[in-house]
Amino acid sequence: MRFNKKLFSMLWAFGLAALLVMLSKTAIANTTDGVVPANEGVCDSLHGGTPGLYGLCVAYCEAQDLDSVDKEPPNTRILDNYRKKMQDGDPDMPCIQAPCPCWSSEELASITGDGVVAACTATSSSVRLTDFAPATRFAYADSTRTRCAYVDLNTATPVVRNQSISADDAQSCVSALNTACSNLGL
Amino acid sequence: MKTIKQIKYTLSVVLMALIAGTAQAAQVNFQLTGYVDYVGPANPFSLSTGDSIYASGTFDDSTLLSGTGVIDFSGAGNDMTITVGSMALTDEMDIFGGANLSLFMGDFDSLDYSTGDGTFDSFLDSFIGDGSLTGTWVTSSFEVTPVPLPAAVWLFGMGLLSLAGFARKRR
Q: What is the pLDDT of residues A133-161, one digit of tens each?
C-alpha cells in the first residue's frame, strides 16, 4: 500500500513535470501573432552597434513578434526610446519599415531575384544595392541627403526614379536596403 | 651696415611667406568623365546613350591626407561645374550648398551632388537625372593638374631676389 502511494506520487510528479514542459514548449512555439516562427533575426544588424538599440529592438520587435512591415506599433514608449538613442547612420526600428517611395518591395526583391550575386556599397549614411546582370538594376538611399533612387534597365521600358524624400522615409529606405544586404550576407 | 641687415631680414621674411603661401594654397584643377547608360524619352539634357558628361573645377588639396579625404565644395576656393548635355550645374546649385567629392589615394571614389528637385543627382559612382537619365562616373578618367602660379608671383619673387643681390653687392 505504502509502495503504491509512493509510486502514485512519483507518477503524479512526473506527469506534472511533463505537463509543464509541454506548456512551456507551446509558449515558445506560439508567438503573439500566431505565426511560427517569428522573425528572430530582425534585430541582428544592431548587435554590437549603438548601446541600447539592440535590446530595445528585441523588446519591440521580437518579444512582441512584430515581424510584419505594416502592423500598428503597440508600444510607442519603446519606439520613442529607440529613436532617442539612435545616432547618425543607425537604422530606424527594423520591424516597422515604411515603404520606400522610390521602389516597391517587389522591385527591391527583383534586384536579387535572378540568382546573380548583387553588390552592396555603403557609406556612413547611404546604401546602394546593385545588380549588373543582365543590365544595371539598383536601389539607392541616403539618410543625410534624404533622397532615394531606383534604376532598372532590364525592362522594355526602363525605370529611372530619383527624388528627395522626408528624413523618415530616407531612414526607412536605408533600413530596407541594409536589411536586404544583410539577408544576402553582404 | 645695420640698414643692409634690416633689408636682408625683411627680404628673408617676405620670401619665406611667399614660399609658405605657395606650399599651402595647393589649388588643383580636376576633371571627371561619366558615361550615359540610358536616356529616357523625356531627355531634357539632349543626350544619347554612350554620351559623356563632365565634372570639372578647382579645389584646395591641402586638406587631403595622402590623397584621401572629402573635398567640400561649399568651402571657399573650391568650385565645380557638372556639364550634363546642354545644362551646366554649379556646386552652388547643390541642395546642401556644395557637392562632396571623395578621393581615395588620389583616385576618384564618389561624387555626392543633388539639385534637390530631381533634376540631377550624383552618388557613389552613379548619376541619375530627371527620371530619364542614368550613367556611371569613370574612376580612371579622374585627372588632377596643379593650378599654375600667376606670372606676377614669379616676377615679384625675382624682383625680391634682385634686391637682395643689390643689397649684398653694396655691402
A: 788 899 999 999 999 999 999 989 999 99
A58 touches A52 (CB < 8 A): no
Best CA proximity match to B35, nearest among B62, B15, B54? B54
Enclosing H/E stretch for A170: helix A167-183
Are A142 and B131 in contact (CB < 8 Å)?
A: no
Q: For residue A154, list chain B residues with Cβ-Cβ distance below 8 A.
A: none
Q: Considering the entire predicted model, what is its pTM?
A: 0.65
CA angle B4, B8, B11 (to 5 degrees): 135
For residue range A56-113, what is the model confidence (pLDDT) as tens digits? 988 888 776 665 444 455 677 888 899 899 988 887 787 776 789 999 989 998 888 7
Residues of A in contact with B126 (CB under 8 A): 128, 138, 140, 149, 151
pLDDT at A4 over 80: no
3 state SS of A82: helix
Q: Which of A126, A140, A160 to mutate to test the interface with B (most CBs of B within 10 A)?
A: A160
CA proximity to A170, closest of A131, A135, A140:
A140
Residues of A with CB below 8 A from B96's CB?
145
Chain B residue with CA closest to A139: the answer is B126
